[in-house]
Amino acid sequence: MRPLFSLYPSKTPGKKSEQDVVETTMDSDQEDDFLLEKRQNLTVALAELPYDLVTYLERAAVHADLGYPDLAAGDSYRALLLCDEVRDESFEYHEQALRALESRSANGIPEILRNRGTDIGDSPRLSNGIENVSIDGEGGAGAGPSLSNGIEHLNIDGEGAGRNNSNSSNGIENLSTDQNGDGRSHIQQVLQRASLQCYRNLAISLLLCGCLKSAIAFCMRGLDEVPEDDDLLQRKEFIENMARRRLKVDEVDINDLPDQGLVRREIYPWNDHEPNRFSQETLDFLNKELSSVAPKCEVKVTELPTLVDNESDSSSFSSVSTNKQLGLFAKEDLNRGETVLDEFSILTANNRLKEALCDACSSALPSLSENSTVVGCPDCYDTMFCNEECLSRAQLYHPSVCEKDLDTLAKDPDPKETPNALYLLLLARSLAMAETQQCHPLDLKEIKYIWGDFLPSASNAVSLSHNAPPPPIWTLPFSFSSNISNPLHVLEKMDIDIFASLATYDLWIFNTLYSKFRGTASARVNLRDGRPEVAAVHPLWCLANHDCDPNVQWEWGGQMKLWCREKRVGGTPGGIKAGEEILNHYCDIDLKVQERREWAKGSLGGWCMCERCRREADEEASNGHHVEGLVAGGPTEDD
Ligand SMILES: C[S@@+](CC[C@H](N)C(=O)[O-])C[C@H]1O[C@@H](n2cnc3c(N)ncnc32)[C@H](O)[C@@H]1O
After folding, report:
1. Does the ipTM surpass 0.95?
2. Could you list the residue range(s) of the whole structural domain that residue 389 is in?
3. How far, in Å, from the CA of 523 to the mean position of ligand 1?
4. Where is the SET domain (predicted)?
């Protein structure tokens, strides 16, 4: 694994020789181990000194070197918030943040904030180490942006082509280091350097995540503070140029810039909450949970076809490769119409502000007639539940959000923001569950064992070599607001100290939660306008795999219910024999094969390869029908 970019200045001047590249490759594992250890030490340091913005900036640099620009942005944003705390005496953590900065600055400007011109000699590298971010192949024959995730293959080139590399040109160097030189205190100077560094970090790291609008917004905020900062000016220009090409416009309106990017979806190397999903211990736990919810079913390890998203990868349907996952199986025969699973979950969310939905299970509230079972929370006026049972279940999350003014969060969103808003609300619910139960969010039993659609860290890594292929396409949707600012806003509303709670509420934890929700949540649409309004994770229901010829049917009211189908597709009688897999359906099975497969690309992660899909695709092909998406050059992710 190699870093995508560096917020630290590199000590190596000039371009790498071939030998350097080989040596770097050979050492990259050791380098990663070193960086991971450094990350761990900085995380421990932050637990001890949570208001130390310098340590946040140090960890941002390590995250960047490890190739996680999203995590670098998260640390830089917390550091920026701490800059505000230092600046404003009336802020809650002012004293702590000021004392931490004073202590870190006692021996001069902290290393991470120093001008690196002296470190790098004649190197054209600028003090933040980004040096020269260029779009691969730009200006070359036929070359252009190559990735759909907004990163577009950013390369670091050792030469500062066409840039003003003067050490005194980037704003930071213009600040006097003389304690009394211009009347400002030493601390104020350190603070100004720090906040400028935060803006620079946020600009480049959010750009690398594909969040161009937020990246440029931070450039502009930084330029408001230090208008002459060459570095920010260049980043802003770079983003504008990239946006002009992507949007194919001459003038860029910041409001039109893309802000939804993609980041790495993986079990982070330091995540020790993720269980071995195939261990006997996990299976025993899940089967115990299943015994009351689906007494005739058991969870087992199974092999599923590895889903692909184009014809060349799936050239022979007869030789489909498989991968190990979990699935739900019948332990006993199940008759037609028989209930297979009946599951309640409090991991639900709804995005309607004035809709009469139960806060716990998100089903429509019964009417408020004389004998209505509807009850309100005795401590806050607005929160309603179907009945006493839902109120009692709500005690597993509601106390930490009761009267906390979170009712309007992500409600009635802009239609194109609806899925993100629902995922944010699920995240908020999981944080409330964790806080109320005093449990790490990743250890909640509703979350710990669910599928996250993670890729191995190695396949997410980005090479820095000059000859490297394009970086991998990351798969976890990411935006500054959904992943960084809004979760912190939720925590603040819950009166949680966002600096002192890193062990439970760090950005990598939010990303892991989002990965799991995106892999398992179901949504319900409002029948009046067809828009998704409710989302939920049912941790046992979501163990059942998809098939376009399902043997069960599902419905989600207050509970998620699965029952055995009367008939299979094609009219054969239903019924499930002991040992057979419970085959759920995630899409409308009345769609044609190509439509189902288009849907599955987004939702399953590739073309559905179930027996029915393969058979119908073969039939269509032999009838000479063009099957959309099954021909080379068919729709891509960008479409
Ligand atoms: C909700 S989970 C289902 C349970 C999952 N197998 C587990 O281990 O927990 C959905 C994921 O299961 C896999 N999956 C479900 N049905 C599949 C199918 N018919 N073919 C291949 N993979 C499938 C896909 O990876 C999908 O993203």
Report:
1. yes
2. 260-286+343-540
3. 17
4. 295-587
